[in-house]
Structures are given as structure tokens and as C-alpha cells.
Amino acid sequence: MNPLYRDMKVSVFERMSLAAAQHGAVNLGQGFPDFGWPEEILDAAARAVKEGSNQYAPSRGSPALREAVAAHYDRHFGQQLDPDHVCVTSGATEALGAMILSVVEPGDEVIILTPAYDSYAPMIRRAGATPREVALQPPHWRIHRDAVEAAVTPRTRAILFNNPHNPTGRLFGADELQVIANLAVEHDLTVLSDEVWEHVLLHGEKFTPLASLPGMAERTLKAGSAGKIFSLTGWKVGWIVASPDNAALAARAHQFLTFSTAPNLQSAVAFGLGCDEWIAPMRERFSRALERMSEGLKQVGFEVLEPASTYFLCVDLRASGLDVDDETFAKATVEQAGVATVPVSAFAEQDPSRHLVRLCFAKRDETIDAGVEAMARARELFT
């Protein structure tokens, strides 16, 4: 058997969700929301099943969805795209896989900023390359040019960049985006930009696509996600946005991963991307949920690292006065206190932070309140 998979642990998200189900715990670990989707998009998907095609869609995506993705980014960010810039994928994780396989060769190195989404390193290795970790430091998680540049070697092919950032909820500033852009241009690197959280912005924050910076449109491949935009994570509809040449190359990798995505879901996402009126209410609801969880956790004695995006926040166990590592806390909490969290050390292989746990706040009020009560019980286990 392939040793990459033979020796690989089960994903931390799957592990904690299974533990939550086994112990009847509140699941604040895996990132799926309890709210946020426009009902009209569900109706559009249902109509498309009955009235539209149920056969293979074109591998690169339906013309309607590719046009809708391009128009959406033109409208929001002024990027002047057309359907040739777009390849539809079965979720953003598949988009990232196709992007990596289309760019990376055996023997290459790819820089990732940790903590990082846990698919990055295995997929880089599956392409025959080596991930090079650059550890961002809590509580501010800033990108420093010297640290990233120190990881560049003659074998470096790409930087895998995530903004807004999971698991920290960090939205990188203009100066940090420029650090990535400058290094890419100076060292002739491609940037694989994971931007799936681009619309899940809290408290009025603004997002800038990396490809919109000077010199970056031709060297950036972007992963986007309808699942994140519409809070419909189970639909697994994503896309790659890149220059026409790079998008075509990524599409060749994509065609032998999933080939195509469910046509009714593509139709519904195309419909949803044309309607912007749901975005502001969605952001307001997530912001309110964040405030509820954050304030609740503070009241029971936890130190919270406030996010600017995503629907995750991190709790600093050490700053909360708890002398326990994140894995021990997460295991005991789900088994004995009734709440599932995710240890942030699972998002890095080298130099991980071992005093932080991630919680998902995209939940109904009653779920948040139950989770906070369980976190209070968890605190008592270690005090």
C-alpha cells in the first residue's frame, strides 16, 4: 500500500466529529454551519433536478456557472474575468488538489504558512513534492517577509497561501499580501491562493483577492467555494480561477480527479452567485454568533483570539490559565464535558502551537449556549 496513506492519520475533523457523535457532544469542531443559506438556492437546486439535466456536466463546469463565477468576481472585485478563467470542481479541496497537481512536479518544494488546512501537505506529497512550513505565531499570526523568504530554495515552485486564514480567522493586511506578491515575482513562483472564506467577513471587514495585485494575475491560481459562500458545505461545489492558460492546465488535472460536478447543484450555484442581497445579512448573522460565543467563553474564563473572517475562533488555553496541551484538552472535553473542539496543533507538522483549540461559532444560539456551558465544564477538568 502507498505509505503516504498507510501511515496517515484520519483527518482531525472526521476524528472529532465521530467522537462528538459517539459521546453525544455538541459538535463545535467540524466547520459546518446551522444557518446562512438562502432558501431560494435550495429551491433552484430542487427545480433543476426535475427540470434540468441529470447527466454528466461538462468537465470544466456548466457554461452558466462559469459565466456566473466570472461575473461575480467582476462585480465584487473588478477583476475582468470571463468563463475561460474558470474551472468548476467538486469542492475547494478538489480544486486545491487539481491546482497542486497541475503546477508541482516531483522534487519541487511548496511553501505553506502554518497552521494550515490539513489537505495541503498530503496533496503536495502526493504530487511528489515537499511542503516547507513557515510557522505563523499567535496571537497576531502576522506574515513576516524574512521568515517566508528563508524558506525559499532553488527547488521552490509555489507558495500555497490561505486568506482569509483557517484555522486562525486572520484576514491578512495589504502589507502582508504585498509580501507574498513580491516574493512570488522576485523568485518566479506560482501562488496557489485558497480564498474560500472571501465572503465570510465579520464586523465590516474587506477582502482583496491576491490576483488583483500588480503582476499576480498570471501567476495566481485561486480556489473558491460555493459551500463556504452559501453555507452549503455538503454540496461540494468549488472552482479554480486563473489565467486562461493556467485554468486550462488545472482543468486537465481536474478531469481525472472527479471529472464533473452534479449539474443541478451547478445550476443552483449559478443562480445564487447572481444574487448579492443575501451577503450582508449572512455576515451580520455570523458576526452576532461570534459575539455570542466569544462573550460566553470570556464569562466562563477563557481567553479568545478574535477572528476577522471565517466562522472559527481560537481559545488560548495557556492564556486562560490552563496547563494542558490542545490534544489532551480536546480529547477530555469531548469525552467528559460534552463538546467537540479541534486542536490547532493538527494544522502543522513542525513547530505547532499546542495551547490553542478551534471552535466553530456558525451555530444557532441554543447550540452556542450549550457549547459554552460544556466548555465551562471542560475548564473545571483542568483547574
TrEMBL record:
<dbReference type="InterPro" id="IPR015422">
    <property type="entry name" value="PyrdxlP-dep_Trfase_small"/>
</dbReference>
<protein>
    <submittedName>
        <fullName>Aminotransferase</fullName>
    </submittedName>
</protein>
<dbReference type="InterPro" id="IPR015421">
    <property type="entry name" value="PyrdxlP-dep_Trfase_major"/>
</dbReference>
<keyword id="KW-0808">Transferase</keyword>
<dbReference type="Pfam" id="PF00155">
    <property type="entry name" value="Aminotran_1_2"/>
</dbReference>
<feature type="domain" description="Aminotransferase class I/classII large">
    <location>
        <begin position="26"/>
        <end position="374"/>
    </location>
</feature>
<dbReference type="InterPro" id="IPR015424">
    <property type="entry name" value="PyrdxlP-dep_Trfase"/>
</dbReference>
<dbReference type="GO" id="GO:0008483">
    <property type="term" value="F:transaminase activity"/>
</dbReference>
<keyword id="KW-0032">Aminotransferase</keyword>
<dbReference type="InterPro" id="IPR051326">
    <property type="entry name" value="Kynurenine-oxoglutarate_AT"/>
</dbReference>
<dbReference type="InterPro" id="IPR004839">
    <property type="entry name" value="Aminotransferase_I/II_large"/>
</dbReference>
<keyword id="KW-0663">Pyridoxal phosphate</keyword>
